[in-house]
Amino acid sequence: MQQLRRNRRLRTNDAIRSLVREYTITPHDFLVPLFVVEGKGIKEEIPSMPNYYRYSLDFLKDEVKELWAMGLKSVLLFVKVPDDLKDNKGTEAINADGLMQRAIQTVKEVAPELLVMTDVALDPYSSYGHDGIVEDGYIVNDQTCTILAKMALSHAQAGADFVAPSDMMDGRILAIRELLEKENYKNTGIMSYSAKYASAFYGPFRDALDSAPGFGDKKTYQMDFANRDEAIKETLIDIEEGADIVMVKPGLCYLDIVRDVRDVVDVPVAVYQVSGEYAMVKAAAAKGWLDHDTVMMEQIMAFKRAGAQVIASYFAKDVVKLLG
Ligand code: PBG
Question: pTM above 0.90?
Answer without folding.
Answer: yes
